[in-house]
Write a structure and sequence with these properties.
The complex is a heterodimer. Chain A is of the alpha/beta class. Chain A has two domains: 28-241, Rossmann fold, CATH 3.40.50; 250-348, Helicase, Ruva Protein, domain 3, CATH 1.10.8.80. Chain A is built from 13 helices and 13 strands. In chain A, a hairpin with a 4-residue loop joins strand 4 (115-120) and strand 5 (125-130). In chain A, helix 1 (28-45) packs across helix 2, helix 9 (254-269) runs antiparallel to helix 13 (336-348) and helix 10 crosses helix 11 (303-314). Chain B is of the alpha+beta class. Residues 1-13, 155-160, 225-318 and 621-632 of chain B have low confidence and may be disordered. Chain B has 27 helices and 16 strands. In chain B, the strands form four sheets. Chain B has a six-stranded antiparallel beta sheet, with helices on one face. Chain B folds into three domains: 9-225, no CATH class; 242-620, no CATH class; 639-769, no CATH class. The chains are: A alpha/beta, B alpha+beta.
């Protein structure tokens, strides 16, 4: 599994090796401060979406990607933009921007996403020109509007953190993070993502309309100059260091792993589920759980983390039998017994 | 949302745990036994038992293999139909009956029906019960129904239901099995509720309990109103009783007969303390079902056969209550020619203006013994010609109070007998009876009245109402008599009997109680009536022809359907009245009328096991079945109760031991385990007052829920979780745990009122709910 071990990229990649001791990031407390900085950036731009912001934060630090299912004009781009702005490029030499936005349309070609080989007349050689996926934060709007071919190109990039053009692989940046969006209702002329591709997203977040006060606040502050300059930025190196610290220092006990596997098995065995969740989803879940534990001020993954993340992690990876629609209900029912077993296990001891 | 869909009804309705299934199978076995015991052969019951076990196992497999409900229903229906139809075929097909013989056919049919058909039905019910909550309520209803049905049948009159259990209790010296039955019924009800509804939410459990109790109560009252023994509402003839007083002659009240009926009513309820002739014992047996005011309609067997008839022979038809009233042990083999044995209690020979009644002058009917033998034998006066009769010794054990002793045929001598079980029998005595050994045809050619009779005696036995229609009818009947027997009293009586048998119609529905002369109303009216009418009509017709005759009252037992045995059980509904005629040189002989037309079902077959059981008690238990006979040691109920109480006490003590042990363990436990014991102790304390973690709720969420009660509980939970899940680096310092625990306890004491804490401390099973 690509995610089982620490990403160990070839040195030919533009990304510099992650400093084991990045300046300022030494322990979980530093990671937490960094997370709060990121959160502050996003909260300053987007009102009333604290739950979404937390999930995006978890995805960024947990090295996953998110799919937002939302209506137009609900702040997706603003959110992604804020995230992109919050990260400072402390490696200008790599020539990778912090943030790119891609609007997917049916006539898009894979090379529009990944990049293209062009012939350099001066050097008389082919030269790779990077596509928009070469960025730290990539916002992909309306991912289901483009053809499966383009979707596949993007999804390879997401899974492998590399793109292949003319049989040559090009590494993406280590901090490659995709926020994709799709409109849940406007399905005419779309190419719905198959389950295998949805599986690459850590979370699928269904956003609800924000509450009344938040909406009023949006109207009130719209157009006012924002005092973002005062917010401290987060460097790319810090984020990568934070990911490593999270992985190393937040403990995932065997009981928690058992609980996760039991949940996956229960979901697969449930009569209402046609296709259960993948092993990949469990692998992806571990960093996410570690990140949430850190956000909650813990250095170990607790049952509560599982209970909080199990729906956003699993809901888009399952296919239910016809007639059963409430995937949240199925998950919440299947999760009860393993969570109880975990609770009993803590009392029982080793 | 498709929550209501059976195919998507949540994972919690999966297969049940194996122990639960085993207990349910046992419950079904019990229910099957209770329901089938009176219906099926032992082979059938065995097959049903097998079907229960196999059906439960198959259903478990089907649930585990995720058989679709439609397929399960189809399989169950096919098995049921196959079993049912094939059992029908086996029973109806002459070829199979020929090949297997009668017994083999019955067995095969029983095995097919109770084995295969029940298997199908049970499989379906068990399968559905594990897939749908509604059917699990049905399961509970089946269990409750079977028990309540069986026990409800016991009430009032059925000593022998459920017979195996009650027999066993009686044999072991329990005089009144009712509390035991109630206990079992309650236990089954509770078991059903706990077993079958434990997987439901509180509201559904409440609903199901209401359903189960409703089913139980419904069955109870349904059976009562279903005329099982018609105890709830007095039948019409019983309601008329009050009006019958006008028929009673005042002089009969003087001699104590009139009061007899009332006394019997009382005896029924309070157990007949110290009856006449010291026959003693407790009369509880027969009256245990009667509730208060129902006694009136219930004491028929004694009152109807006894003193009550002294006032009015028409007031009561033979009561239809099949309550056992006596057991008769035969010392010699005897079979009556007609197949009916007559047990006489008293005779009515005196004519009182409208009807016959018991003669108390002492001058007549001296051949009938009317007193119990107390210390010395009681001998009957002269009556029968010993040459024509056979002597037959029997022993009678009365189960119900009777004012006069009952005895087979013409009793010559009654001797006192030790009551083998005063709890069960109200009286016991030996009887030496005369039974007619001569063929009646050889008795022809005799006159009825003896030459030695004086005029008063002749008049006493031939007095009839002042109504010319009797003689006219008798003459009409005897018009075509063979001239050779023109003067023969026996032949005349036979012809009259034959005419009554052909013309009369036996029914309990017409009582003729409103007529001034009920016999005339019957005889010259519809000719529809019961034994009392036939007996009186026959006697009046006989007497109109000068034949000395009287009405005997007692019990008639049809032995044609008995399969043998030396014990005979007399039931209350066998009460009967029949004519007796006197023949010179012979004596009084039974001369019953058997109406050819009847709307009554044939007499019910006596439960043989009860018959032999009571007979065995009567014969083998001469000391009364009490503890002074070491061989017949009764079941040690007192000891059993003490053992049970000790077990229960030990159980409760054990529960408290575990409860307090868990708290003490906190103080004894080592450093690395302390957080667990602290957590357990706090969770125990909350569980004691009814606060428990919900299924699927995390410990953190539970702690947050209790923040208002015990704010430090959250910290304790976190410490515990960190120690448990935080890996090798994380460990809770015992001192911190102790301090946190102390804080939580203090907050708990502050937040929970003292009475709830006290109740919690006394709750022995609170720790069982800790999740």
């Amino acid at each position: 599994m690509a995610y089982a071990s620490e990403p160990d990229l070839a040195p030919d990649a533009p990304a510099p090796p992650v400093a084991a001791t990045a300046p300022g990031i030494h322990g979980l407390a530093d990671v937490r401060a960094l997370a709060e900085r990121l959160r502050a950036w996003m909260r300053a731009s987007v009102m009333g979406r604290d739950d979404v912001i937390e999930l995006v934060l978890i995805a960024v630090l947990g090295d996953g990607h998110v799919l937002l299912e939302d209506y137009p004009g609900s702040g997706k781009t603003t959110l992604a933009n804020a995230l992109g702005n919050s990260i400072s490029d402390d490696n200008p030499s790599d020539d990778i921007p912090e943030f790119r936005r891609l609007q997917f349309t049916p006539d898009l070609l894979p090379s529009d996403v990944t990049g293209v080989m062009i012939f350099d007349l001066e050097s008389n050689t082919f030269h790779f020109r990077r596509g928009p996926v070469f960025a730290y934060i990539v916002l992909v709007d309306e991912i289901n509007r483009t053809t499966p071919k383009v979707q596949a190109a993007l999804l390879e990039a997401m899974a492998e953190k590399q793109v292949t053009v003319d049989n040559i692989s090009h590494k993406l940046d280590e901090l490659f993070f995709v926020i994709a969006t799709q409109n849940p209702l406007d399905a005419v002329g779309t190419y719905p993502l198959p389950l295998a591709q949805l599986d690459r997203f850590l979370f699928k977040i269904r956003m609800k309309h924000i509450d009344r006060d938040s909406e009023l606040e949006v109207l009130r502050t719209w157009g006012l100059p924002r005092d973002r300059k005062t917010l401290p930025k987060v460097s790319r190196t810090d984020v990568l260091a934070a990911r490593k610290i999270l992985r190393d220092q937040v403990f995932v006990s065997p009981q928690v792993q058992e609980c996760l596997v039991d949940i996956a098995r229960a979901l697969r065995e449930d009569r209402r589920v046609l296709q259960g969740v993948s092993t990949r989803s469990l692998v992806l879940a571990i960093p996410a759980l570690q990140t949430l534990a850190m956000l909650r001020g813990r250095d170990f993954v607790a049952p509560e983390d599982i209970s909080r993340l199990v729906v956003p992690i699993f809901q888009h990876r399952m296919e239910l039998v016809p007639g059963v629609e409430d995937v949240d209900l199925v998950i919440n029912e299947c999760v009860k017994a393993p969570l109880d077993a975990l609770a009993r296990a803590t009392l029982r001891g080793a | 949302m498709s929550r209501g869909d059976v195919t998507a009804s949540g994972p919690e309705l999966g297969a049940e745990a194996i122990p639960v299934q085993i207990v349910k199978a046992i419950v079904y076995l019990g229910a099957g036994w209770l329901m089938l015991a009176p219906l099926a052969t032992s082979v059938g019951i065995g097959a049903a038992g097998g079907a229960v076990v196999v059906g439960c196992a198959l259903a478990a497999v089907a649930v585990r293999k995720r058989l679709r409900p439609r397929a399960a229903l189809l399989l169950g229906a096919v098995a049921f139909l196959a079993g049912w139809l094939s059992s029908l075929f086996v029973r109806e097909s002459p070829a199979i009956a020929g090949a297997l013989g009668v017994e083999g056919t019955v067995w095969t049919s029983d095995v097919l029906f109770f084995g295969v058909a029940l298997l199908g039905a049970l499989f379906t019910v068990r399968y559905l019960a594990q897939r749908s909550r509604v059917v699990s309520v049905l399961e509970a209803a089946i269990a409750v129904f079977s028990v309540v049905y069986t026990f409800a049948s016991h009430r009032y009159c059925q000593l022998n239901q459920p017979r195996d259990l009650v027999d066993w209790l009686l044999e072991n010296g329990v005089s009144d099995p009712q509390p035991v039955l109630y206990g079992i019924g309650t236990a089954v009800m509770l078991l059903a509720i706990v077993m079958f509804m434990r997987r439901q939410s509180a509201w559904k459990t409440l609903f199901s309990m209401v359903v189960a109790v409703g089913v139980g109560v419904g069955v109870f009252f349904f059976i009562e109103s279903d005329n099982l023994c018609d105890a709830s509402k007095p039948p019409p003839w019983a309601q008329k009783m009050g009006d019958d007083d006008k028929e009673a002659k005042p002089d009969e009240d003087e001699d104590g007969q009139g009061g007899k009926g009332d006394k019997d009513d009382d005896a029924d309820g309070k157990g007949g303390e110290g009856d006449q002739d010291g026959k003693g014992g407790k009369g509880d047996k027969d009256g245990k079902g009667g509730k208060g005011g129902k006694g009136d309609s219930q004491d028929g067997p004694q009152g109807g056969g006894g003193g009550g008839d002294g006032q009015s022979p028409y007031g009561k038809p033979p009561p239809d209550s099949p309550r056992p009233v006596a057991v008769v042990a035969f010392h010699d083999d005897y079979e009556s020619k007609e197949g009916i044995l007559y047990f006489r209690q008293q005779v009515q020979s005196r004519f009182d203006a409208t009807h016959l009644s018991v003669d108390n002058s002492g001058k007549y009917d001296r051949d009938v013994i009317t007193t119990y033998p107390t210390t010395a034998p009681v001998l009957a006066g002269e009556g029968e010609n010993p040459d024509l009769f056979t002597t037959l010794p029997t022993s009678v054990y009365l189960l119900a109070d009777h004012p006069q002793p009952i005895s087979l045929a013409q009793a010559r001598e009654l001797r006192p007998l030790d009551n083998p079980n005063p709890e069960l029998f109200v009286a016991a005595y030996d009887v030496t009876s005369y039974v007619l050994s001569e063929d009646p045809s050889r008795l022809l050619g005799r006159t009825s009245a003896s030459p030695g009779w004086d005029a008063a005696t002749r008049a006493h036995y031939t007095e009839i109402p002042d109504d010319p229609r009797y003689a006219a009818l008798a003459n009409e009947i005897l018009r075509d008599i063979d001239l050779r027997f023109y003067d023969d009293d026996l032949m005349k009586a036979l012809l009259i009997k034959e005419w009554l048998e052909k013309s009369g119609y036996y029914t309990l529905k017409e009582t003729h109680v409103d007529a001034t002369d009920p016999t005339a109303d019957f005889l010259f009216g519809s000719l529809r009536g019961y034994c009392v009418h036939f007996a009186n009509a026959a006697v009046f017709l006989f007497r109109s022809q000068g034949i000395a005759s009287r009405v005997a009252v007692g019990y008639a037992v049809d032995t044609r359907k008995r399969s043998g045995g030396s014990n005979l059980l007399i039931l209350g509904n066998m009460a009967h009245a029949w004519p007796e005629i006197h023949l010179d040189g012979v004596g009084w002989i039974t001369f019953d009328v058997y109406p050819e037309q009847s709307d009554e079902p044939p007499q019910q077959i006596v439960d043989q096991s009860l018959e032999s059981m009571l007979g065995e008690i009567a014969r083998k238990d001469p000391t009364g079945g009490r503890a002074d006979d070491p061989d017949a040691s009764p079941f040690p109920f007192g000891l059993l109760l003490i053992i049970l109480a000790c077990c229960a006490a030990a159980f409760v003590v054990g529960l408290y031991g575990i409860k307090w042990g868990r708290r003490i363990a906190l103080h004894l436990s080592g450093g690395s385990e302390k957080h667990r014991w602290a957590m357990r102790a706090v969770l125990d304390a909350f569980a004691d007052v009814g606060v428990v973690r919900q299924p699927g709720e995390t410990r953190e969420a539970f702690a947050r829920r209790l923040t208002t009660v015990a704010p430090s509980f959250d910290a304790l939970t976190m410490t515990h979780l960190r120690a448990a899940l935080g890996g090798p680096r994380a460990a809770a310092a015992p001192a911190d745990v102790r301090a946190l625990y102390g804080r939580v306890r203090a907050e708990y004491r502050r937040a929970i009122p003292i009475h709830r804490r006290l109740a919690g401390a006394l709750n022995p099973i609170g720790w069982l709910w800790v999740r």
